[in-house]
Design brief:
The chain is α/β, with parallel strands linked by helices and about 200 residues long. The protein contains 8 helices and 6 strands, in the order H-H-H-E-E-H-E-H-E-H-E-H-E-H. The mean pLDDT is about 90.
Amino acid sequence: MNNGVVDNLINELSRLPGIGRKTAQRLSFFILGMPEEEAISIANAIIEIKKKARFCRACFNITEDEICSICNNLQRNRNTICVVEEPSNLIVIENTKIFNGLYHVLLGALSPIDGITPDRLKINELVERVKQGGISEVIIATNPNTKGETTAQYISQVLKPLGVKISRIAYGLPIGGDIEFADEVTLSKSIEGRREL
């Protein structure tokens, strides 16, 4: 069945991460049934983000300005930097309202097999920020997977000579989880990351 514009929208939506062909088809027919103003509003939001969004010159968060609102906020703790892989990770940490320092977004994680080497990430920029002084701790909050662990180890090695405290976020069992259903790696990380009560 060839529906031209519908097939085109399905094909375009299915290029998005996590959107398979069936979901793209459902979304396409949902958009088709929307009032025209709402569909145009979605289209305009996509165009606007592509035209206006850029990376913060200091931390590489997404912003419309040269420096993002977090870096510009003088109420934040300017001695601590939390390193994350992507701007979406920053948003999740911000939503916890537990961290009040600055951020540094790497824009990826090390993966030599995929050609993602240190020079492809914002690691040199992180080193320069630490070298400028005033940073007492760097919290590495990369993902707890192979790429994230490799990235964390590399960052730790390049920052150690600068005399800054380097910490890694703890990970392990989720709140409300059951120990009997945890895998060995998660459980071992939970024990390693234990804290005094």
